[in-house]
Amino acid sequence: MQGKGFIKFMAILLGIVCVYSLSFNFVTSKVEKDAKAYAKGDPEKEKAYLDSMATVPVYPLFGFNYQFCKAKEINLGLDLKGGMNVTMEISLAELVKSLADNTSDANFNQALATAQQKLNAGGKDYIDLFVTEFEKLSPNVKLVDFFSNQDNAKELKPDASNAEVKKFLSKEATSAIDRSFIIIRSRIDGFGVVSPNMQKQEGTNRILIEMPGVQDKERVHKLLQGSAELQFWHVYQNQEVYPVLENINKTLASSLKETKAVDTTKAAGTDTATKSESKLAGLAKKTTTADSASLKTQEAAKSNPLFAVLTVPSYMGENGQQQLRPGAAVGWVAQKDTAKVNAFLKRPEIASIIPQSYKFMWSVKPADLGSPVGGAKIFELYAIKVTSLDGRPDLGGEAISDARADYDQNGKPEVSMAMTGDGSAIWKKMTGEASADPNNKRSIAIVLDNQVYSAPTVNDEIAGGRSSITGNFTVEDTQDLANILKAGKLPAPARIVGEFVVGPTLGETAIHNGLLSFVLAFIVILIFMAMYYNKAGWVANLALVINLFFIMGILVSLGAVLTLPGIAGIVLVIGLSVDANILIFERVREELTLGKPTPVAIKEGFKHAMSSIIDSNVTVFVLGAILYVFGTGPVQGFATTLCIGIISSLFCAVLISRLVFEWLLEKKSNITFGNKYTIHAFKDIAFNFVGHRKLYYTISAVIIALGVIFYIKNDGLNLGIDFKGGRTYIVHFDKGMDTEDVKAKLNSVFTESETIVKTAGADNELKITTTYHITDTDTQADKLVETALNKGLTETGVKYTIESNEKVGPIIASDIVYGAYGAILFSCLVMFIYIVIRFKKLNYGLGAVIALFHDVLLVLSFYTILDGVLPFSLEIGQDFIAAILTVMGYTMTETVVVFDRIREKLAESGKDDLYGEERNKLINFALNSTLSRTILTSLTVFFVLVVIFIFGGASIRGFIFALLIGRIIGTYSSLCISTPIVIDLGNKKK
Length: 990
What we know:
Number of strands: 23
Mean pLDDT: 78
Number of helices: 32
Subcellular location: Cell membrane
InterPro entries: SecD, SecD/SecF_arch_bac, SecD/SecF_bac, SecD/SecF_CS, SecD_1st, SecD_SecF_C, SecD_SecF_C_bact, SecDF_P1_head
Low-confidence stretches: 263-297
Largest sheet: 8 strands, antiparallel
Strand order of the largest sheet: 3-4-2-18-23-20-22-21
GO molecular function, one term: protein-transporting ATPase activity
Distance between the termini: 44 Å
Shape: globular
Strand content: 5-15%
Membrane topology: Multi-pass membrane protein
Main location: membrane
């Protein structure tokens, strides 16, 4: 075997990377175990312990802190951890209208509305749809008349054509989506979500967001759908604010002392309330400010409650006395104490003594204070100066005409910005006022969503509307800030058009069921391989274990999110990975039957099996790639593990196992490829597949015909909300419920809508789907539907819990439908091209593609026939598309192996093709000679799927059922349809 040294080097290198990637889980697990032991069941104590460990080095070798390790561990998806999945849509209609200065032109507004309708119906490019509709309604009107103005004169000439306007609008739309993405990401980071996942759906105006661990829907809605407000404020200086802070501190000390003296239990309640107001932070760092908790005694903290957590910026004066530091920052506070300071400032007795012209705000980023004690994250507090009676800022984001990332004269990143004419005048006045006193230069704060991004000191009046913002910025910071500054220019409202909420209980159940199915399926395969192939089976098992280790390590190192379909994908990859070993072992057994010695048989077995292994794995990998491109969320998770697993499986099953065999041969070890019960299995089989092909055609036709009949009888397929839009809720009741009774109760509240109630596993778990208010874009629609749902469920008189809910808007549903069609058709085209190129015969490609369509129709037929008969849902959603494409992968794998054997025999005979009875014999020989591999591979995957079906939980039972019947259909199709049909499509000449 050539290249053994390189293979060993790659295996060791990959092993080191995987060990490093997986080691973070062991480190965080130990810290969290210690936290549980310390808390003894108290969640607040457990959180406090983890907060305290956030910046403490916990990784023995490298000294990484807990927060760093937590960010590097395996990311669990929402179905395993609980949380929210949200699809945001940026309103391009309102963006275009604002760019046209909110014109009242009837045709213009009609074109906007029609374009939106076509987008909802499955259209792709809103700008293209709008321009097309406008040209239909106003063929002699130039679009540039609506959009050209002084601010965009450089980009859009007054005589620009409609095509140029379209290009301008597309650019502005892309820019608005990018800026919206940055703003939403900033908000989520401030929300405190651990390991959020955000993706822009390329080619659309939508953003996908996953927030593990988040359950507060209403707060998330406000967070994501609120307006992004950019503001410029004058700020108070530190010296001006200190007396106010001192007064707050004294009032707090007196108030807290009185409260404790009157009722100690009430004080505890106040502390709880303070904690409840904290952000949903995953990992707030345990820190202390430079001169707070670590330097003050507990008694001093009681007498100075504010200054115990807030440090006033100061420095040592020439006289040896502490002096207040000049500048806009009025306080330094550890990240974990910001919620406590907020609670202090909201107390009624404190709010009453804060001057009305004061508005306190936090810095968006930690301050650069050198090396604070404990490596703390310290945030700065600012006192904004309110100068208007209505409380509005001195200057708003509408004043910004342009902003870009740049570098100052010292080469440090900065943001350059330009303002509109009106904005320039106000900015000149603001900067003039701030710099008027040469001995007391003041600052201006740049604020987005009530967080201070920068508060630079103004040295001189700035005329012309051009300025720059400097600070503790990286290049990425300035790029983001430039986009944020521009966000104030073009209002593009964002709305939630799809969401999926999973409760933590459902997540724990999914984890348990998923892991149980995974372990059991793995054990089933190990036992089967060891029993069937004896010592060679143990070599395959070793390769499987290494393969699993590599898959998990690669997934973690890439930061992939592990979902329940992802676990199913890993288990399926393990089942499919034995296919390569089975191909090799069966070829080795053929060589041994011919009387060749074991070393030669092993060498020849690997050599002859390689072509089939490469072809079959390439076809499945291509399908996985298509699935990843067309799928979203869980489907992409399945595709990711499938593609990674195929690459890893090839490396382990072919190269690692070959190294082990070489080592065993060097040790003169006796290598067996079966036992007395299995060594002669599938020998001397000569089944006439070709001769019975018309019978198989008839069987398939009858099943498809029955599917059509039941399709008509059932008024179509049982489409999930993925394909038609709606809301779905999983509700757990304290006892078994009658679905019709629950449906009757809900129909009384869900008026003029379609409502479906089915069991979701047990009879006390119901899946409720409704289209009630699904087309309503009002922000209160979700709350209205939930209120109606709770009203209907309460009328049942049984205690219930809503464990998860999902919302898919009509536009998302139409995209999924077209995406599913595209995935299936595109994959068929790719498979056809691949087969024709590899086997150089058109009838082979046609046979393979006809078999693919045959499999899809059979799976759909069985779903239609058995819907309502089986005790679990057979909805057709995104997971079903994943199952269909996987079934197609099975069929292609089986078919390619048979085609490869035909090609091999043709090469041996020295002929390009055979005809008549000679061709029939050749195809029957190829099918029978590969039958052992076909049956064994099918059985291993079938065993795996049965285990997952039984133990994997109700949430993926329909998905696994599709794979189960698909596995059976795929095996049947490859033996009885795809290869025999080559005869009927081929040249008839003798």
